[in-house]
Amino acid sequence: MRLLLTGGSGFLGSALARAAADRGHSVAVLSRDVTNRQNSRLTWLTGGLAEPPWAEITRFAPEACVHAAWITTPGVYLKAPENHHWVRWSLEFLNRLPALGVRQLVALGTCIEYQITGQPLREDVTPLGPTSTYARCKCDLHEWLRRSPDLAGTALAWARIFYPYGEGEHPARLASSLISRLSHGESVVLKTPGSVKDYIHADDVATALLALLERGFNGPINIGTGEGVAVETIARNLAGMLGHPELVEVPAHPVADPLDFVVADAGRLHSLGWRPQVTLAAGLRRLVQARRP
User: Do 7 and 69 contact (CB within 8 A), yes or no?
Assistant: First the structure.
């Protein structure tokens, strides 16, 4: 398969690029980052979504595209007005691809498009209820792509990503920030210790996205393990691995988390034959080894 990948130098995009190349696919990465191009198995196309290098893309002749590019900086992305720009850029970019021969699109959405109900989130049951600018923009993009006449006859998989972690993640993300503090002997007071999320390793996200591509999946689908893990469990596992179990503190009156239970119903993904391969313990251990000072 000739695969065009946006955001291929980012956290999830780079994991997918490696996995796709390992699987024997021909991968072209659209990226403005010219400093991180060590993988010679990839074709690098210099440019961004706002000003794509259409001549180079046309020469590559993609058959499929995974759209992973977006603003994702922790502490910024949820409210950033730039989300609206990404919607417009994405629409203009993706609507042009079928004319170049693309017949399969996979676009990355988010689990927080859903209304949080306290139950596993299921594609055909759980109502949508985005509360952030980021999630609303993702919802809008999905709806406009779904209705686009330019994409008629093109399979569109809308991949709602749950809580990815792993090597290469932003240092402000939960696991990496905990590793940094615990490694320096700093105590960690957990504000929402009982908050349960569906944590999935970046390598497993990559193989799940490949499953969508290789099976020509069409429609919304959750990219999660189907298993929930409490923040306290993550923290205590990391503290144990780093030899500082005494540094994790749970307050008497934890803060309420509006996203207190965000876990995928992974039945639709499992029906494609996909299963996670990286256990939580193994994934956290790998991240500790990668980030430990």
Answer: yes
Q: Tens digit of pLDDT for each residue in 185-208?
A: 999 999 999 999 999 999 999 999
Q: How far is CA 90 from the centre of its chain?
A: 16
Domain boundaries, the chain: 2-164+200-223, 166-197+227-291
Res 292: pLDDT: 76
CA 62 to CA 252: how far, in whole Å?
A: 55
User: What pTM was estimated for this model as a whole?
Assistant: 0.96
The overall average pLDDT reported for the chain is 96
Q: What is the CATH number of domain 166-197+227-291?
A: 3.90.25.10
Fold of 2-164+200-223: Rossmann fold (3.40.50)
